[in-house]
């Protein structure tokens, strides 16, 4: 199977500023990775580069390959990449019931607009995903009436419905209370164990499930470390990354920092 992602000498500008510098990264399909770094280090821009929302500067040595291909129809690519952002759903999605919100993942739309044709196979797949994420009870509930944790669960289902190969999550525990955070972590564990690849951006060390075994550290738009969790998820490395004293403990495979 071709690697999910291969980036070589990638530089990305936002406006007049270069925000990613000489990024070299290979991610295998099905791999489980967490990306850590302070605010403004380029984590979200890296995700946007992977999803082709941002494009690298054109340079002879630059290479970008996703699922073994250098060129994609973006509509097709979105069906292969499940992306869950930190933001909660927008207005059109809030008035959509849970099953239909999951179905929008087939179309990369905010709701099921009248011009979209939903097949029986799509509905069957959506029901499978609702079972997979333990959200059957939310199938007929408007998204706007759900808790933040329930909304995030439905958005993960939306990301999974067209393809379950790779899931990209950008600060998924934002706006969630402690119970919802625990539910999210258990869901990510189950998905990882089922073979879904996970690329997780987080500020919360406790969000990193035991199944994630590779850590990327970013600073000032550069990848400054890439290696096993056992080597990088340590108090000295985190203290150096965030420029503050970090204490770290571990319980049942999860790390907790303060």
**Percent in strands:** 25-35%
Distance between the termini: 40 Å
Order of helices and strands: EEEHEHEHHHHEHEEEHHEE
The shape, in one word, is globular
CATH classification, class level of the domain at 1-67 and 201-258: Alpha Beta
Give the name of the CATH architecture of the domain at 1-67 and 201-258: 3-Layer(aba) Sandwich
Which residues sit in consecutive blocks of at least 5 with pLDDT less than 50? Answer: none
Radius of gyration over all CA atoms, rounded: 18 Å
Structural class: alpha/beta
Helix content: 25-40%
Largest beta sheet, briefly?
A: 6 strands, mixed
User: What is the count of DSSP helices, taking H or I runs of 4+ residues?
Assistant: 9
CATH topology of the domain at 1-67 and 201-258: Rossmann fold
Molecular structure report:
With 258 residues, the chain is of the alpha/beta class. It has a domain at 1-67 and 201-258: Rossmann fold. 31% of the residues lie in helices and 25% in strands. The protein has helices at 43-50, 74-80, 91-94, 98-103, 120-132, 148-161, 178-193, 229-232, 235-242; strands at 5-14, 17-27, 32-36, 63-66, 81-84, 166-170, 197-201, 214-219, 222-228, 248-251, 254-257. A 6-stranded mixed sheet has the order 5-6-7-3-8-9, with helices on both faces. Strands 2-1-4 form a 3-stranded antiparallel sheet, covered by helices on one side. It is globular. The protein starts with a strand and ends with a strand. The model has no long low-confidence stretch (mean pLDDT 92).
């Amino acid at each position: 199977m071709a690697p999910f992602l291969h980036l070589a000498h990638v530089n990305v500008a936002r406006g007049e500023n270069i925000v990613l510098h000489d990024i070299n990264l290979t991610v295998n399909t099905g791999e489980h990775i967490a990306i850590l770094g302070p605010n403004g280090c380029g984590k979200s821009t890296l995700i946007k580069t992977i999803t082709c929302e941002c494009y690298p500067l054109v340079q002879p040595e630059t290479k970008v390959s996703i699922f073994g291909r250098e060129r994609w129809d973006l509509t097709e690519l979105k069906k292969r990449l499940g992306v869950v952002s930190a933001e909660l759903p927008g207005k059109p999605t809030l008035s959509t019931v849970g099953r239909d919100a999951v179905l929008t993942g087939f179309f990369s739309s905010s709701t099921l607009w009248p011009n979209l044709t939903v097949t029986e196979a799509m509905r069957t797949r959506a029901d499978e995903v609702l079972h997979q994420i333990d959200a059957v009870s939310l199938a007929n509930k408007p998204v706007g009436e759900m808790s933040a944790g329930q909304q995030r669960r439905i958005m993960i289902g939306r990301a999974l419905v067209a393809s379950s190969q790779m899931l990209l999550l950008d600060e998924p525990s934002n706006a969630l209370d402690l119970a919802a955070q625990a539910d999210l972590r258990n869901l990510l564990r189950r998905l990882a164990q089922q073979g879904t690849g996970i690329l997780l951006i987080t500020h919360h060390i406790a969000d990193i499930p035991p199944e994630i075994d590779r850590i990327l550290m970013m600073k000032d738009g550069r990848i400054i470390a890439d290696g096993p969790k056992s080597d990088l998820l340590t108090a000295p490395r985190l203290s150096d990354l965030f420029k503050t004293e970090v204490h770290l403990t571990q319980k049942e495979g999860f790390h907790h920092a303060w």
